Fold this sequence. Notes:
The chain is an all-alpha fold and 126 residues long. It contains four helices and no strands.
Amino acid sequence: MKKPTSIGILRWTARIIGTLMVAFTLLFLIGSLLEGYNKPGPGTDTFTKIIFVFWGIGLIGLISAIWKPGIGGIVSLLSFIVFNILAAVNPNPDSRYSIVLLMFLLPSILFILQWWIDKSSNKDAL
C-alpha cells in the first residue's frame, strides 16, 4: 500500500509544480505581449529567439508529461538543459543568467522519477 501512495504524491507534486510553472510563464508572456503592443520597440536577436524556442519545447514537454510522464519529462528535461546552457553563454551584454532558472528542471526530474518508479513497480507485479 505504501508504494502507490508515494507514487501518487510524486505524480501530483510534479503535476502541480509543472502546471504552476506553465501558468506563471503564460502570465509573463501575456504581460510582455501587451506591453510590446503598447510600446513597440526594437526586436530581439536570433540567438534569443532560439533560446525561447527551447523554453517553449520544455513547457510543451511539461504539459504532455501530465499524460505521458516518461516522454514528456525527458523532452522537457533535455530542452530545459539546452535552454540553461544557451542562456548561460548568451553573447548579448544586456542579458544575465540566473541560477533560479534551474528550478524549471525540478518538475521534469519528478516526472521522470515517477515514470521510472511506476515502470519498475509494474515490472515487479508481473
